[in-house]
Amino acid sequence: MTWWRSGTIYQIYPRSFQDSGGDGVGDLQGIEARLDHLVMLGVEAIWISPIFPSPMRDFGYDVADYCGIDPRFGTLADFDSLLAAAHDRGLKLLLDFVPNHSSTDHPWFQESRASRDNPRRDWYIWRDPAPDGGPPNNWISDFGGSAWEYDAATGQYYYHAFLKEQADLNWRNPDLRRAMMEALRFWFERGVDGFRIDVLWHMVKHADFPDNPANPDYHPAMGGMHAVLQQHSTDQPEVHGIAAEMRAIADSYPGDRVLIGEIYLPVERLMHYYGLDAPEVHLPFNFQLIDAAWDARHLAGLIADYEAALPADGWPNWVLGNHDRPRIASRVGAAQARNAAVLLLTLRGTPTLYYGDELGLTDVAIPAERVQDPRELREPGLGLGRDPVRTPMPWNASAHAGFSTAEPWLPLNPDWPTRNVAAQAADPASMLALHRDLLRLRRKHAALAVGDFRLIAAEGDVLAYERSHGDERIVVALNLGATPQPVELPAGTLLLSTLGGTADPATLRGDDAIILRVTR
Predict the structure, then answer these.
(1) What is the Cβ-side half-sphere exposure of residue 468, based on CA atoms within 13 angstroms?
(2) Which are the catalytic amino acids?
(3) Count of other CB atoms within 10 angstroms of residue 232
(4) How far apart are alpha carbons 63 and 284 in whole angstroms?
C-alpha cells in the first residue's frame, strides 16, 4: 500500500508556522524546529505552501523563480536540511507548485513584455485589444475586475486570472511547457516526495478566447469573479494532457511520489483529473466538506455520491480547510469541530489537515490597518479575505505564543495564552489530544486507514458508517446536533468518544462521535 493512501497530509502555511529569524515571519528553519510536533501528532507528510522567490504580492503564489527559495524563508541549504530532517523522522515533504501563472517580476515575463517579437513573447497570453480598445473579452479575475491588463509599450493586453502582477503562462507553447516540467524535475531530483498543484483546472484557456457566459445567479456579495461562469477560461480539454505528463514525470521517480491537484469543480468533472486517456494526478482535491451544510442527511448523500463517482482505481481524499477558506471551528462551532475531526480522519481516503485545526483555531478578526491579503484589499467587506485563516501557530504561553521573538506578521488568535500546543499537549481532553488519538487509531487499525466503506442507515442528526478490512470491522457514529439521538449500532468495544467516558449503545449523546470496534 502506497504511503499516500494510508497516510495523513498536514498543510503548513510557512509564513505562520514558526519564525526562527526574529522578523515575525515563519521560515524553513522554524518548520524544521517544529517537526517533532508533527511526529507526535501522527501525520505522515507535510505540504508546504509556496516558498519560491517572490515579491509576495500574493504571498508566494506569484513566483519569480521556480527553482529557488525566497530569502524570507531561507536558502536552498535550509531546504535541504529540512527535507533531510523530515525524512529522518519518517515524514514525507510536498511542495506547492504554481504552474498557471508567474510573477510579472519573473525574468520570463520581463522578456515576454519587452517586445512583440521577443522569443518568450508567447510564453504568456497576449491579445490585441477589442475593436473599442478595451479588453479582449469579458473574463474576470478571481480577485475582481478585468482579467486583462493593457501594456502600452507593446499595445496588447496580457491575461491574469488573479492579480495583474500574476501573469498567466501559455501552456500551449512547447518551450514554456518544457521549462516548467524541468522545474518539477529539479525538485524531484532534490528529493521532494510530491507536489500540490495550484489551480490545476485553470492552466489552459479556450484557444479562441470567447466571452464567458453571464452568471444568472450572481449577486455582488459573491465577489466579482462570480459575475460570469468560467466556461472558457478554465477546465479545458487540453489540461488533461499536461496533467498526464506531470504524472509520468512523478511516476518515473522511486518512492511513490504523489501529485495532488487543486481543482474546484463539480464531482463529475473532478473525476476526470484522475485520468482520461492516461493517469493524471493521484489525488484531485475533494473540497466538498468545506462548503457542505453541516447536516447528517446532506453529508450522507454527499459522501455516497462521491464514492459512487470514483473511477475503479481512484483513491478518495477529504479536506476540511485550507489557507483560502474559513476554518472548520468557525463554521460549525467548537463542539462540532471535534466531530468534524472524527469525520475527516475516519472516512475512506487520504485526509489533509490544515495547520492549527488540531488545536481548534478559529478565524481571527484582522484590524483594517493590519490586513495583508490582496483579495480583501481589492474587494473589502465581502468576507472573502484569507488573512483570518493564516494567523500564526500558537505554540505556548510565552511572548508572541512562542511563534517569534518579534510582533508576528498577522495577529495571533485572541485565546492564544490557553489555546496553544503546550497547553493542549498537557490536557488529555483537548482538541490536540483528540487528533493524536484519531491518528493513532488510523495507524493501528487498517480498517480506518485503507478499509472499505459502507454507510449505515441512520435518522435525524446521526451520520453512521462502517469501515472494514479483512476480519476487522469498525463503526463510526456522529451526532451532528446538540441533543441526544437514538441509535441502533452493533455491540462492540468503544475505541473513542469525543466526549469521553462510556457511551450508551442505544443513545448517542449530543455533540458526540464514537468509534466502535465490532466483533464479526
Answers:
(1) 12
(2) 198, 262
(3) 20
(4) 23
